[in-house]
Amino acid sequence: MKIRHQHQSEKIELEMTPMIDIVFQLLIFFIMTFKIVDVEGDFNIKMPLASVSSGEMEEELVPPMKVRITAGGGGQLASVALNGRTLFGGFDELHTEMMNLIGDDAQIQESAEVEFDCDYNLRYENVIAAVSAVSGYRTDSGEVVKLVEKIKFAAPRPGG
Amino acid sequence: MRLAKKSSEIQEGDLTPMIDMTFQLIAFFMVLINFSQNEANERIQLPQSELAKPAEGPLDYPITLHLTKEGSVILSADEVEIDALRPLLVREANVMELKGIPQSDATIIIRAHKATRTGKVQALIKVCQDNGFENFALRAKEKKGF
Q1: Which residues of A touch B19 (CB under 8 A)?
Q2: Residue A146 has what pLDDT?
């Protein structure tokens, strides 16, 4: 009887080509679907319809503040006014005014309320800049310090 | 002069480092892949703000409305004018009612284009208010370096 040799001395080589094909296809898929998403954040606004006319009487530590923003040509920012007083420094001055009025007092921060009255044609990015100016600021370490949390809009102005 | 004899064997390159790198790249892209792109819309360029920080927790019931530069509203797959938004909001309110979620728990996320007229944004808020929604979130993009 003839006995076959059980042990072969040759190396078994794995076929790498299909695996590399698949791996490269996967890589291309992930590269093509990769998208850098910008960090987004929200400014919360609570505006129940009823509170426009009938609000509960709350103790107000600071008088309600009204920010009037007007638009020039092309919806660009024309002027900013706080309680009827024009702020020539724009949103930077608005932020400084808010810092002076609100400060670090947590109670005042909670009760303070700002109403925005904007022109119809004003570019929306100006509104966000104004809301940022009154909402708070970032410290050098990157932490957000809040100023005014209650933000609302006045009745829309006619336009368009 | 004696010439070196050329080897007739096929020279095989070592594929291990390349495969290592490729797998690392795949792992990198797999971890970073973001499937939740239903909130984003290519047409909307958000305004920037240095205070725009991601929310600490997920919202209870977010409804995202995209407001384009031209003033039309995109809700899910529908694009309508602001005046025609009411049926879509009623539909959302009905869905909430079926799920037993009070309408006051919903937050309308407004993703408006930075060049949109403010009057349009206010008109959008007004329509939502008229349909019983009261919580709004104005979305902005984080401003890098200031």
Answers
A1: 16, 19-20, 23
A2: 81
User: pLDDT-based confidence at B36, cuts 50/70/90?
Assistant: low
Domains and CATH numbers, chain A: 60-153 (3.30.420)
A129, A160, A156: which is closest to B81 by C-alpha? A160
pLDDT digits (tens, 9 = 90+) for B91-141: 999 999 999 988 888 889 999 999 999 999 999 999 998 888 888 989 998
Q: For chain A, state the CA radius of gyration.
A: 31
**B-chain residues near A141 (CB < 8 A):** none
User: Which of A26, A71, A138 comes nearest B51 by C-beta?
Assistant: A138
- pLDDT, one tens digit per residue, over B52-65 is 877 777 788 889 99
CATH numbers and ranges of domains, chain B = 48-142 (3.30.420.270)
Shortest distance between the Cα of B70 and any Cα of chain A, in A, equals 12
Other CB atoms closer than 10 Å to residue B108's CB: what's the count? 26
* Mutation for testing the B interface, residue in A10, A23, A40 having most B CBs under 10 Å: A40
CA B131 to chain centre: 25
